[in-house]
Design brief:
single chain; 146 residues; mainly alpha; Cytochrome Bc1 Complex, Chain D, domain 2; binds heme C
């Protein structure tokens, strides 16, 4: 079918408008996508994702007060030090042992009294405000404290 635009002014206007609207949306979408690409490039340019995650974990540990009870140097403050904690075999107050892995650290944060480390008082508060992402970052940080 051949559309004769000059003889169909309203149709021509409509098609023109549709073309304009479609192109406008397309340009806006491309611009948005370019913005996204720029952001991605900036992220790729900074430290590796793993470093970023554990850096975020370190910040969270500081702002949530973890580091006022847990040292990264081996020194015992109120809780056990995080130095060399990940992968270590921990003795609990009931005499059982547990390997420190992600699940154990997650439980220690979400439900501290569930497993109490031998020789320590169960004084650690729980942190319901920490999201799953936050917890993963904190675990990455603890894992990096060798
Ligand atoms: C008021 C002090 C205090 C604060 C704040 C605190 N903890 Fe603890 N934490 C302890 C104590 C005491 C223990 C040992 C007793 C126990 O297992 O509950 C412990 C145990 C742990 C353990 C198990 C350690 C091990 O050697 O097996 C982990 C992991 C842990 N805390 C993580 C955290 C994180 C993450 C935060 C912050 C979000 C935090 N703690 C905040 C006092 C604290």
């Amino acid at each position: 079918m051949h559309i004769d635009l000059p003889r169909m002014p309203i149709g021509g206007l409509l098609i023109g408008f549709l073309l304009f609207a479609t192109t406008g949306t397309f340009v806006a979408a491309s611009l948005l996508r370019e913005g996204g690409a720029l952001e991605t490039a900036a992220t790729v340019g900074s430290p590796t994702p793993a470093a970023t995650l554990s850096e975020r974990g370190q910040q969270l540990a500081a702002t949530n007060g973890c580091l006022s009870c847990h040292s990264t140097s081996g020194e015992v403050i109120i809780g056990p030090s995080w130095k060399g904690l990940f992968g270590k075999e921990e003795t609990l107050a009931d005499g059982s042992t547990v390997t420190v892995d992600e699940a154990y650290i997650r439980e220690s944060i979400q439900n501290p009294p569930a497993k109490v480390v031998a020789g320590f008082s169960p004084v650690m508060p729980s942190f319901p405000a920490l999201t799953e992402e936050d917890i993963q970052a904190v675990i990455a940080f603890i894992q990096s404290v060798k």
